[in-house]
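Morning!

This is the sequence you dropped in the shared folder:
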Amino acid sequence: MLRRLFKDFHPSLVFAVVGLAAIGMFFIYSASFHDPGHYEVKQIFWIAIGLMIMITVAYTGYRPFLSMAYLFYGFSIALLILVHLIGSTHLGAQRWLRFGPVVIQPSEFAKLGTLLALVNYLGTRNPLQGQFSVILGAVAIVAVPLVLIIKQPDLGTALLFIPMLAVVFFLWGIQWRFLIISALGVLAAMPFVWEMLKDYQKKRILVFLNPNLDPLGSGYTAVQSKIAVGSGELFGKGYLSGTQTQLHFVPEHHTDFIFCVIGEELGFIGSLLVLCLYAYLFHSIFAIMEHTTDIRAKLLSGGVLALFLGHVLINIGMTIGLMPIAGVPLPLISYGGSSFVMNSIALGLVLSVYKERSIF
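The structure's back. Tokens below.
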């Protein structure tokens, strides 16, 4: 029965997902076993739910999701608006909706809803006819959730829409001149985006450019994060033996800064193995995207790849000081139900592309 159930699943992708989820569970426990929150128990629940959702979505197929893409998109926009009206605030950001004991982060689902709408919109239009007007429509689809997310404020999540849009445009067949114009448009909008940022977000960017600007204030997390990763050296201090993270020098170390825990306890070698597992996942998604004959399936797989790659680059980049602190979780590893469920749905859609492939 299990062989029949999984015979059409891409084995490399499933292996990478399960491996990263297992690593996340162990290091969420390591990051929080002194805390009363029992985050690892909650994460086990979300992993189980997420994997079941991934399998269900894979067998449902991506076509039903694309047929309801605008409905998903509208629902995600409604949730983002609801966040601004009645959302919960934490650390100065209003990003969550609370329904009894359940807390969700609508921006996570907005990424997937926007991708589905974008794929359905571009996938049904000829890239050789009326390209400029089509591009304006696609940019408008992305602009609405992007602005709402920036206003929460959540600059890190908003930034992920840009590579997603660029990759989908490229795979669709955008002319280079339009791609260059779009890039120049993004650069031209930067001063307006800067004015929309909160003071603490501006300070994070300034601290990134000059780490010594405020080492005990806005630069504290960035400094402590680099110390934690660097103190792991080659082989790490051992599981559950980190000092920077266990003593809470690094805040949010079970969510956005969980890579600090991995770097400190497993060292460079362990961190490299995690990166290799991500590379294995990215290669699997790319292989599925490359061999599908359906343009909408190709756009969907490429968009999912861009989202995951963007998450990993931003999260690990901010952890080791190569990017500003942006509050982006590490996919499949960081604690968080909304993030894991959204990732599971996205990967289930990619698996359904492989399952329904015409030629592979």
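Headline: The first helix runs from residue 2 to 6.

More detail when I'm at my desk.
O.
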